[in-house]
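Known limitations

Files may contain more than one protein. Parsers should not assume a single record per file. Below, a two-record file is shown to illustrate correct handling: read the sequence, read the token line, then continue until end of file.
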Amino acid sequence: MSEIIAMVLAGGQGTRLGVLTENVVKPAVPFGGKYRIIDFTLSNCINSSIYTVGVLTQYRPRVLSTHLGVGRDWDMDRKNGGLFVLSPYAAAAEGEWYKGTAHAIAQNIDFIDQFSPQYVLILSGDHVYSMDYNEMLDFHISKNADATISCIRVPISEAHRFGTVITDNTSKVKEFEEKPKNPRSQLASMGIYIFNWKFLRPLLIEDSQNEKSSHDFGKDIMPKLVAGDNNFYAYEFEGYWRDVGTIESFWEANIDLTRSMPALNLYDPNWRFYTHSAEMPPAFFGNDAEVVNSLTSEGCIVHGRVESTVLFQGVTVKKGTILKNSVIMTNVLIGENCIIEDSIIGENSIIGDNSKIGIGDRIKNEKYPNIYSDGISVVGEGVTVDEGSTIGKNSSIGNFLNTKEMRIKTVPSGKNLRIDGVV
């Protein structure tokens, strides 16, 4: 019997990240120089001594499943417990995709039952944060709760993006609203829940049999807990937590790591973040290299100027190039005399000599205004940008495009390059 097991919801597409999630699920998106987003949730589990973890996948799972392997990099390749990748499966009648977050857990009741846990910790695999789940469990036990939701205070102007909670003076949840248009509370759900398994199990079965339900924790389970006057409490978390579900928030959370005292401490020996990554040689800095307030990972070769930028593993920056406020992912090659500002460059891309990216007027993206609208330009994975090209602000280039073969030198601010040309 396990006291607690964790179930990580990791099947979300993350459409607001644009080209970054066209080919990979959001939890598998690279972050912070050498990690992937899910690494933070898994590291929090192992640091909290939770050794039985199920990861529920769905959308484009290949990269994520390869990254996770058998959990060895998180010390989860164990005889008792361990890390398990759980995909939707064909039941006796017919197979079906997970219909919602609650349905995903319900489909894996048999998996949970084999460990006979007292508590089930439900997590999201697409947030970046540092959290000791034992503190939340202690709170849950002290309140004699049936269910506990972890919350964090956000500006009221941002509260509409989250499920919001209203509590009484004992932290008991009195109201829950899923992404309200006019929020009345700053207490936002982090997508983290602890349930007594004996309480949650019949609730999931009942919900799965309700044809009117959308089978979602936020839309269905949470309101039902409030309406039923259950022992449902809110644990207020005061540490570092970021929802990196938009281009702006993803870029900002990465760039925050280049500050002299970042809010997320990657260097704490008592709370390490683990990952699966390639073995590469040490970084090299040439005579002309200047690196200021930046993260530089193994395998990088730098001959240019790098300022307030995150360089992932294996990045090459040639002579005369200037990088500023940018996120450069694994194995990117940047030629000579380039200028790149306020940009995200996807894995395995090649930027030709004398190119400019993120330079131009700040014009809102015409085709995707809800994705590329904060002055950040995005070059997708495996892209080749021809020498002498100019990519404006709020622009994007789709994955695996070659601008030289397409004979395109300019993508104006607010425009996008896709297989059928500039749109």
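...continuing to the second record:
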Amino acid sequence: MEDIPPESEKYFEDVDTMIIDAAMYFNRKIRGHMNTEQALQLVKKYKPKRAILTQIGKTYPDHYKAQKRIENYCKLHGIHSKVELAYDGMTIEDLQETYLLFRYVGSKRLNADDILAEIPENTKTFFDPMTGSSIIAWRMKQKGAKVIVNDISPVAYYYSKAILGNYKLPKEEFEKFLKAKPVEGWLTKSKLKRPGSIELRKYIDGLVTYAHKQKNPIKDFLLAVCADMLTRFMGSFGVFRPYKWTVQSAVKFAKASYEDILKKIIPGDAIVTNKDIFDLEFPNVDAIYWDPPYDIKEGEEVPYTAQQYKNINSILMQRDCVIPEFDRQRIPELLERLAKKCKIILVSTSDSPYIDYKKFLSQHKKEVTVKKLKRKSRGTQPSSARPKVKEYVDLLWIAKDPVQLTENKRTAIYLVKPHAE
């Protein structure tokens, strides 16, 4: 790429991260590519918060020398964006964080774009009765919708309440939290094999205990930090990963969680509850998204993820916290209740659900379609060996009533031509 066409310039206004071809070093040129100076001039023009120069060629000197010269050039020419040279294995955290939220099992972040594409743009109210990571609700709030979410899992509840809320914990309150005294709590006394450090176990228990002793809204925000911190230790498997974690690891993760949550908070209305879906009174809204858990056939073993919920929630709540097993036989009942409360309902399932979703949804909505969503994953079962990435197919059921176009009736008077003129 040698330049950005004028008709494309509108897409580069107010961008957070800009990735730019800078194949050649300063003063070097090659057809079809930009050099460092040309790329930096584009950064100066569009003023992104962050710019990453990529496709670095052999004309560049040592990485650190080149980075230093780029920094000097930016100072000299009034470029205030953060400019970085790309390197092999680099990950772009800001882009990942936009859609990752936190590392919660079953997150629909990989399918979020496809799901959101089916929700009408004029949706003003949105409901998710089992929100998990809240990725769909969070992005609906970005669009300006009022969101109502629920999850029985405390980890999901506290995290969702923080990112969908409007409260921002002051830095001084967070610093007090980091100085919490170690406690022999649930994790310390548990039979979990990891983490091996008793000092770390006590510190984590101390952080959670400190959070529970605070008054709201400080308490709920700190529990959200703890929830996110724990997912950084555990990933999606509910077991501490086999590393030599230390107290400093917890401090590092807690700080990252705190900063991430602050960045996720956006203005707007939201209601977050922590109830069993069968005890929940559903609101009347424009759109509902539902991702039923454990979409398995009768008699099959419940996936390992059930243990994930128990471990992480027990640490967070400092007591044995077992979530009631979801009664899959009652899915048709829930479909009926949900469908009656909205204009459009979207339901995510596996590619071979044991329930006939089309049949049940058709009983309550006139138009039912299904969309296949492909994603790549290493699965949800922990393994001593790194599992291979596989392609999975999920189904998205979309049920709605056709839009009724109201006829605009007008009174008309026929006039003969002279009078019409």
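Parsers that stop after the first record will miss the second one. For reference, the second record is described as follows. The CA atoms of residues 183 and 206 lie 5 Å apart.
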